[in-house]
Amino acid sequence: MNAAPILKKNNNFEINDLNRLFCKEKDHENNEIIGICIDDLCDIKNKLLCYKCIFRLHKQHNMIELSEIKENLNKELENYNKNIDYINKFENDFNSIEIDFRNKFNEIKKNFIKCFDENLDKYIKHIKNEFKDIINNNNIKSNINFQDLLTQINNNNNENVSKIICNYLNKKPSKENNLFEIKTNLYNKINENINNFIIKQKEFYENKIKDDFQQLFDNNKYLDFEWDTKTYGAYNFLYDISQKNIARKSKENGTITVIKSKNILQKNKIYSVSFIINNCYGGDYQVGFGNDLQAGSCWLKEGPTYYIKEDGIFNNGHLLNGNGLKNNDLIKFIIDMIKKKFKVFINDYEIYEGNFYIDKEIYILAAIRNCNNSITVKEFYEINNY
Ligand SMILES: [Zn+2]
Ligand SMILES: [Zn+2]
After folding, report:
1. Which residues fall inside 5 Å of ion ligand 1, going by CB?
2. Are 381 and 271 spatial neighbours (Cβ–Cβ below 8 Å)?
3. To the nearest 5 percent, what fractions of the chain are helix, strand and coil?
4. Which of 247, 255, 251 is nearest to 364 (CA)?
5. Which burial class, exposed, middle or buried, applies to 300 when counting CB atoms under 10 A from its CB (0-12, 13-18, 19+)?
6. 20 to 30 A from 319, CA-CA: which of 142, 190, 202, 267?
């Protein structure tokens, strides 16, 4: 990973190269250039000036001395070289950062494999024990006691020998395949479990890893959220937003009052916005998105808005879904402005997916009834996929 510099410093030009300029005017030969004419009204073609030009052809023209130009160009050149140094260093820096990142991810992989192996070992031990148990519980019983038979033969006790044999003959023979069957059944059962496990795990891990990585991408597009400080129609501004992402109702206790995001959502983006609702002081409250046209005192009932409140998800006053929010819930909306779809999550659990129909400008909206309750936008970011 030996990165070659992608940009080369300008090593060819030197400020002193400017000293090699001489005047081209007739009879000015061999005169050094000492300035440049920048006069708007000057219509002389030659702008590079020697002392003669300055006093004659460009008399009283607006000019800059060559020394000043040299100083400016020198700064420019230094800056340019510095930036190139910086960019080249960045490439090298990033290579070491990349190694560090990859090491961290490899650590995760290693731990994952270790954890996986440990559990696999445990499971194999468990299966072995299960086999052993089955064998122990079905120990090989025979309908004849061979040890006893041998003893009686050794004792020459023909009576007992014949008794044992007759007794055996009267009984049904032992089931030969019993143990084999048990073993086969157990094996089939284990095999089935493992196959199901593999299918499930494959799907789970592939999706999980993709999702988790996606979050890394998402976090890179974190946006600053700001509640608007503007007021609606007849209402004064009734919130305190001493922190730009926290709206705390501060006036007119008991009137449900809307607040909106400072910026509109852009049409070609997908947003994720999560709210934390602090409703310690009672009363109802809503969070969602939509147009602010109808946002007077009761946007929950009117206007092109989609929102969640304590008794469900609503659009324009119509119930869409009966899952409501509670105090201190983490509410997340994913708003896909491209496909005009949205999802609602409560505490990271998806509860609703649907389309939205709003032609007008869309804002993030919230409404609080009682003073001192607040709504915090915890995270606001643009996502690529969801
Ligand atoms: Zn000249
Ligand atoms: Zn001039």
Report:
1. 23, 25, 28, 50, 52-53
2. yes
3. 40, 25, 40
4. 247
5. buried
6. 267
Q: What is the pLDDT of residue 1?
A: 39
pTM listed for this prediction: 0.47
CA of 42 to the centre of ligand 1 (A): 15
Q: Which amino acid is at 172?
A: K
Tens of pLDDT along 324-350?
Answer: 888 888 999 999 999 999 999 999 899
Spatial CB neighbours of 293, under 8 Å, sequence gap ≥ 6: 303, 304, 360
CA atoms within a 13 Å half-sphere pointing along the CA-CB vector of 299: 32
Tokens of 75: 């700064």
Q: How far is the CA of 52 from the centre of ligand 1 (A)?
A: 5
Q: What's the pLDDT score for residue 175?
A: 57
Q: Where are the beta strands (DSSP E) in 100-178?
A: none
Q: CB burial class (10 A; 0-12, 13-18, 19+) of residue 322?
A: exposed
Run of H or E residues at 380? strand 374-383
Q: 126: number of CA atoms within 13 Å, CB side?
A: 7
Q: Which two tokens stand for residue 4?
A: 């070659």
Element (H, E) at 218: helix 178-219
Which CATH architecture group holds 239-383? Sandwich (2.60)
pLDDT tens digits for range 263-305 = 999 999 999 999 998 888 888 888 999 887 654 555 555 668 8
CA 167 to chain centre: 78
| Rama region for 339: left / alpha / beta (φ>0; ψ in -120 to 50; rest) | alpha
- Identify which ligand lies nearest to the alpha carbon of 30: 1
Could you tell me the distance, in angstroms and rounded to a whole number, from the CA of residue 37 to the centre of ligand 2?
5
Q: How many CB atoms lie within 10 A of CB 166?
A: 9
Q: What is the pLDDT of residues 209-235, one digit of tens each?
A: 888 887 777 555 778 899 988 765 545
